[in-house]
Amino acid sequence: MPRIDPQKAVGVDVGLKNIVALSTGETTQYPRYYVQAEKKLAVAQRDLSRKKKGSNNRQKAKIKVSRLHEKVRNLRDEFLNKLSRKLVDSADLIIFENLDINYMLKNHHLAKHIQDHAWGKLIQFTQCKAAKAGKVVELVNARYTSLKCSRCGIIVPKTLADRVHLCPKCGLKIDRDFNASLNIRTLGLRGRASGDAGVSGSMKQEALSL
Ligand SMILES: [Zn+2]
User: Fold this and answer.
1) Of 1-15, 27-41, 86-100, 151-165, which range is least confident?
2) CA torsion, ordered 185, 186, 188, 192, to nearest 10 deg
3) What is the Å distance from ligand 1's center to 176 Cα?
4) Do the Cβ atoms of 154 and 22 come closer than 8 Å?
5) Is 0.85 topped by the overall pTM?
């Protein structure tokens, strides 16, 4: 496997508020136009559920929902294409958590898990572009990445509501997602150094294409 300058490795933590938090300290939020389109879709879906079965109005509502669905999907893909392009351009080694693919597939048909689909797609798009650019995507075990202190390594328990990582041992105080991205980067680099390169991209690619 090609040798990679650790300076050119980036750890990526995916999330709900910020779609990505990077080990460089940068974050990217879901664009507003996308969030708004998603809300519109949710409203249209609610409308549809209230229409009488077999009615003309229900037919119209159905068409509206499917149009909005397509719009959301297009906006999402467009945004994820840009974001994955940025990731691949900025680093030689891009490290993500290996998301629980079984969980994602189980919830495939639930609209509220639309965010999970965005994560899977982001990884898939990044793998695609990285392969073309001769760069590498690693997936690492996601266990403890948000709990572990990225500086001293102790486990610092937190709930989902705790947005800040504050280490009682070494005093490190940083955003929780930033802390996670640093752990993800460390795991990815360690995995490559030991020859255990985690889950290979191509193997999981199919499962991720939701
Ligand atoms: Zn610490």
Assistant:
1) 1-15
2) 140
3) 12
4) no
5) no
